[in-house]
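User: Structure tokens for both sequences below?

Assistant:
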Amino acid sequence: MDREKIKALITLLDDPNDEVYASVESVLLKEPIEIVPELEKAWETSFDNIFQERVENIIHSIQLNDTHAELKNWLKSPNQDLLYGAYLVCKYQYPDVSIIHLKEQLSELRKDIWLEMNEHLTSLEKIRIVNHVLFDVHKFSRNTSKYLAPENNYIKEVLKTHKGNPLSVSVIYSILCRELGMPVFGVNLPKNFILAFVDESAISDNEQIKDEAAVLFYINPINKGAVLGRKEIEYFIKQQKLQPKEEYYLPCDNVTIIKRMLNNLRFGYDSKGEEGKKEEIQKILALFDEANQHPIE
């Protein structure tokens, strides 16, 4: 990055000639995200509304391009880490979000759970401890007053407010359990994302579980971690008039979870009438379709 060249280009952003502006914008949008501080500095020192608006648009576009690039890399990565996926979704709205800070917040929650654990506990007893720490001590819950709000899908906001939707609370719950050595995975159940505690011996190297018998029990984090059996899931599916599918009982992969998170976001922005953000999320979702068409061999 040629800093002097960038500074010179930025000074041209107030040019009244639209062709000059379009040309400068085109060049700046090809630059890496590292130029954002220079753009922010220029915005702060200007009192020209048109210049500031143009700078804001360019910053947003660069940050959006960076999120696209990082999500593409995540989709190509062999492990597709769940926390990192949730972090990248969060970067759409909060470009300065820190993965280190998110890990520190999760580490505090994990420590509180770990202090209550011992090696003689059964799987159910361990889950009761997780439930006690998350729902009784830290008061994680469904955001009932703003159920469709986009912020329910941003892990930064959920860790800050301790309120979210079934998916975001389940993601935090699963991450903590996995870090504590408990095989708890997401289940892509429509209308209420839940979790499954599985038999470790049934987990393959790529963490795929295809046998329903491997699921020891289900967990509903949005209902204070209530433990469920298969019959409760069957009843829910029947109650919601859904066609039964095997995938409603089996753990899903992290790509499915992050895609559902983005779909929640798209619906949230649509419900608020924020068409621009809805379209941007739609373009991010298109990356997942591209990944499906060109899977890693």
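Moving on to the next sequence.
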Amino acid sequence: MDTNEIKDLIEKYNRQTATSAEKKLVEEWYDRIDGASLTQNNLEDATVKQQILSRVTASIQNTKTPKAKRIRLNYGLFFKAAAILIALIAGTYIYFNSTNRSQIAATSVKANKITIVPGGNNAVLLLADGSQIILNNTSDGQVASQSGVQVIKTKSGELLYRFAGNATAKGATINTVSTPRGGQYHLILVDGTEVWLNASSSVKFPTAFVGNERRVEVTGEVYFEVAKNKTKPFIVHTDQSDIRVLGTHFNVNTYADEEYQRTTLLEGSVEIKRGDKKALLKPGQQASLNAKSDGIKVNEIEDLSEVIAWKNGYFQFEKSDLPSVMRQVSRWYDAEVIYNGKIPAKQYSGKIPRNVSIAKLVEMLAWSGIHCKVEYNQITVNPK
């Protein structure tokens, strides 16, 4: 059993055409890693990779195909497991078969010209007086004090708002935290609500919540874990809707270059309001809004981990088209993406750590059939 046969099995698994025995093998292997985080250290641990490759090869060689049976399948698990398999096997193959690197002929990275690096904690705090604080260049500790509220950068790199001494929410000023392309940030508002910003995103909020509601405004992609307060609802305003909650976990994707604005609920309940239309979401549901129409479409989401993969340090694609995949890559690596030829009408599934180098990223993408050439700050995609 060689690496190409293993790769074929993974592809069958992704296409849901694998036999029961092959599906069982993938599930058992996924259970072995138990959804472990795929950090750069994991991918570069030669001992771990060799053990995994040996085990998978031996298991496939010793597996006999049983008679076909009708089984109710958990496709979300299949895609999740197969995505991790692709990432790890790709890393194993690349490191342990260096003489065969020419097989990925369409993938090219000019090492002496690389200026693209993965993103990281990078954000700007805009205070009410118009002054700006570049957070990644700021030392830990208090960075500002406004209307009785301290703004503190913690040792872990978060931005924390808290009342100074016995101060209360009697007055407030407006602050904005924004991330550039290739940036992300985590902040905790004065009420305890936690906010995570993806690349090229922003949240505008009062330093203290005065009155009968807690209102913030967002752009880009933001994940919230809202502190519960039954007497003071939390409202997230976007350019297309108001999202009203009491205490819950949800993700808002409102990038201008995406066809739909999507709000996905993980815990609790939220109400989406758009003009005179409303929709109430339950956990596992997603509301989609299109600027070309005034409706609200609600869908069930099978795998919520895909929606917040960015927050947990991954790219995760499940039946995604090529432009959708590359838009995420472009934002995080702050790179221009261009297409050499016609964009194929294909769907891609996979899971890749967001901290990998651009060279490793394009090697992994090549295993899914996405071939790229990287030079300076530009990624050229050669669709096939």
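User: Anything stand out in the second?

Assistant: The helical segments are 3-15, 20-33, 40-43, 46-61, 75-96, 304-307, 322-333, 358-367.
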